[in-house]
Amino acid sequence: MKKHLYILFLLSAFLPAYGQSRQNIEQKIEAVLSKMTVREKVGQLNQLDGRGIHGTIEQLKELVRRGEVGSLMNITDPKIVNQLQEAACKESHTKIPLIFTRDVVHGFKTMLPIPLGQAATFDPDLVKEGARITAVEATEHGIRWSFAPMIDISRDARWGRIAESFGEDTYLTGQMAVAVVKGFQGEDLANPQSMAACLKHFVGYGAAEGGRDYNSTYIPERQLRQVYLPPFKQGIEAGAASIMVSFNDNNGIPSTGNKYLLRNILRKEWGFDGVTLSDWGSVTEMIRHGFAEDRKQAAEIAMNAGLDVEMSSKSYIQNLEKLIAEGKVQETALDDAVRNILRLKYRLGLFERPYTDIHKPKETYSAKHLAVAKKLAEESVVLLKNENKTLPLSANIKSILITGPLADAPHDQLGTWTMDGEPGKTQTPAKAIANLYGNKVKVHVVPGLTYSRDKNQSTFDEVLRMARSVDAIVAFVGEEAILTGEAHSLAALNLQGAQSELIKQLSATGKPLVTVVLAGRPLTIGKEVEQSDAVLYAWHPGTMGGPAIADILFGKAIPAGKLPVTFPKEVGQIPIYYNHTNTGRPARGNEKSLDEIPLNAQQSVLGHSSYYLDIGSKPLYPFGYGLSYTSFEYADLKIANTRLKKNDTLSVSVVIKNTGQYTGTEIAQLYITDQVGSVTRPVKELKGFERVALNAGEIKTVHFNLPVSELAFWNSVMEKTVEPGKFKVMVGTNSENGSEATFEVL
Ligand code: NOJ
Q1: Is residue 14 scored above 50 in pLDDT?
Q2: Distance between Cα 465 and ligand 1 center (Å)
Q3: CB-based contact 735:622 (threshold 8 Å)
Q4: For ligand 1, is residue 279 a contact (CB within 6 Å)?
Q5: Residue 2 predicted with pLDDT over 60
Q6: CB within 8 A of 604, min separation 6: which ones?
Q7: I want to staple 730 with a disulfide (CB 3.0 to 4.6 A). Which of 6, 11, 391, 738 is the partner?
Q8: Helices in 399-475 by DSSP H: which ranges?
Q9: Which domain CATH number covers 718?
Q10: How many domains does the chain have?
């Protein structure tokens, strides 16, 4: 065994990794490092913005020539990229190339659905394809390092950045993290079409108290390791080249200065040899946190904690030399950080090919890219309700009204973080429906409201007149892109402006009403769902959202998306997520509603269980929920071996039948409940899912194989272990609905 490992080690040292052998890279790093001055070393750790706030391009060139900057953000003109690169590679003393970086989060020019929408596809292969085309477009523009994927577990829809996340679940987020890393980085990071991924934000940022952005978090170590850290570990195992720390302080320590996270967990436990990067200004924000006295101390804390590259705030370049001279920072710590950024530059092949090929034919907005964007948008749509088979719109429908502020909102449907997305290229639902189906139905477009916060109802009469004259109404409501994303938290999650009123009045016409929601987060739309015959949740679907939604409305595509996050009925239920632990008095499900509470009743008359008097215990929609135009039945759940040892694999099968009229895809979900533990365990946890395509009437047996080792958790003495005992397995259509069986781990 040992011999095998040794041979493997030798092979991995000499086999080409990223175009050249690892050993070679390490030797080259040492050779370069030995010729660098302390200032040049610090310069490599300095990341600046190229949009003017840190000087003009000419001034930046000067800094580059002096070796005082190692990477540049937000320059997307490949000609300027090449000019600056020339200053680095030809005119600086070290000749070290720059890296050009940007927030390429869900598409570069061809915008894909927001990540929360991508998560709803439960289709990591397609998400990987989306990330690949994104890398192709971004690298054409000179960008080789993206600040994505964002893999913060997000359980609070008030937090605007939930849009950027893959939702509330650790397992699903982990799958998506790996997909994006592999898509961005490709087979070989040195390929000029590959882009370094950056797992962010390390860690716990999504748990911001009250959903207020940047807020403190209080995540105990067990939960950190169980819920928040695994997607990072998986991303690193998939080869992620970098990690960005988070803005929050967890349990009183800002991530930017958290040695335990950056040195112990990341480097020692996980063996990460990529780059750690601050968030924008997060080094000097430690002063505001009350964790550093001044910029110099902030630099000292961050560097000693193990933070390699500082984004934007320049405290390293201003202070690290002094700190080293004073002995407050060891030069060895600086060298290690520089090794990490040089390693990334070698891995990207920048020493060999620093320039962006501006003559290569462009693939941006190619038919292939638009097709991937459309497929992702299509798969991301979740059908929440479909009463009386309102959808798909039948051939009997001769005329429709398209209304609502999001029907033709080319900017807003692109969603948050669309730095390079172009509204001019967006295909909106209103236009797509008219273009693709205008020959089948008469399409009338009357928006009623011009944007989501619009309260002006002066055109409602016209909308209603038209509504009464058509066979069906499709109302596009939701939220503008600007209401989501960084620093855009909301305390109320109802539809903004007069949108609810619009839905109410449309519903009162008695015409079939389809409501399509375009939003960056779960909205509390219980009332509007009741008033609508059918509801589609389409997130912010990106450039190709229009044709994707049009095809779904008319049945050319069948919705299959599932919610990657629990939808609350009311904001007051937050945090609400499916894999919570149980109380000693869980809700019974038959609790009295507010109206049923007797007058002058004694305190104990309602019993003692965990629920809200006014809205009960259930969410509006559970995690994993989503309907189809067809219907599926689950039967015959079987476990091959119900008594398993720790190194066995649980083998589960279930029979799924398409009992409806359409070909469709069901996303079968496997959940595990560890019934008794040395610490309380979640009521259930997603451990697998499978996309199952079935023709009408077709039956398939779906198999899941889950190594028992995947049932490990951080036990009462903080060891990651599988505890023997009884487990439940559920396979079903969402986190609340499925067939169950039990098994035992010996
Ligand atoms: C702040 C955000 O938190 C981070 O995600 C982003 O990458 C940086 N700004 C750079 O734009």
Answers
A1: no
A2: 47
A3: yes
A4: yes
A5: no
A6: none
A7: 738
A8: 429-437, 460-469
A9: 2.60.40.10
A10: 3
Alpha-carbon span 622 to 17, nearest angstrom: 43
Q: According to the model, what pLDDT value does residue 12 have?
A: 43
Residues 323 and 425 in one domain: no
Q: Is 456 exposed, middle or buried (0-12, 13-18, 19+ CB in 10 A)?
A: exposed
Is a pLDDT exceeding 90 seen at residue 18? no
Same domain, yes or no, for 397 and 535? yes
- Dihedral sign for Cα 307, 311, 315, 316, please: positive
Check pLDDT > 80 for residue 3. no
Reported as half-sphere exposure (CB side, CA atoms, 13 A), residue 417 has a value of: 27
In which residue are the tokens 């071996």 written?
Answer: 641
**Has residue 22 been placed in a domain?**
no
Which atom of ligand 1 lies at the shortest distance from residue 74's CA?
Answer: 11
Active site residues: 279
> What is the pLDDT at residue 5?
41
Distance from Cα 275 to the centre of ligand 1, integer Å: 16
Tell me the mean pLDDT in the region 17-25: 75
300 shares a domain with 154? yes
* pLDDT score of 16 more than 90: no
Residue 579 lies in a domain: no
Residue 334 shares a structural domain with residue 432: no
With a cut of 80, say whether residue 11 has pLDDT above it: no
How much distance in Å is there from the Cα of 148 to the middle of ligand 1?
A: 9
Same domain (yes/no): 214, 333: yes
- Give residue 21's pLDDT: 83
Q: Which pLDDT score, from 0 to 100, does residue 289 have?
A: 98
User: Can you give 181-248 as a three-state secondary structure string?
Assistant: HHHHHCCCCCCCCCCECEEEEECCHHHCHHHCCCCCECCCHHHHHHHHCHHHHHHHHCCCCEEEECCC
Q: Which atom of ligand 1 is nearest to the CA of 148?
A: 7
Do 307 and 383 lie in one domain? The reply is no
Instruction: Answer whether 103 contacts ligand 1 (Cβ < 6 A).
Output: yes
Atom of ligand 1 nearest to the CA of 311: 10
Q: What is the mean pLDDT of residues 371-375?
A: 99
Do residues 86 and 202 both lie within one domain?
yes
Q: Report how far ligand 1's centroid is from the alpha carbon of 76 (Å).
A: 17
- pTM greater than 0.85: yes
Q: Does residue 285's CB lie within 6 angstroms of at least one atom of ligand 1?
A: no
Whether residue 376 sits in one domain with residue 228: no
End position of a domain, from candidates 553, 575, 599? 553
Enclosing domain of residue 431: 367-553
The string of DSSP letters for 96-142 reads: PPPEEEE---SBSSSBPPPHHHHHTTT-HHHHHHHHHHHHHHHHHTT
Domain membership of residue 537 (yes or no) is yes
Percent of all residues in the chain with a pLDDT value above 70, rounded to a whole number? 97
d(CA 570, CA 492): 9
pLDDT higher than 80, residue 727:
yes
pLDDT at residue 404 greater than cutoff 50: yes
Mean pLDDT of 342-359: 98
Indicate whether 506 pLDDT > 90: yes
Which among 313, 236, 311, 306 is positioned nearest to 272, based on CA atoms?
236
Q: Is 355 within a domain?
A: no
Q: What is the mean pLDDT of residues 260-269?
A: 98
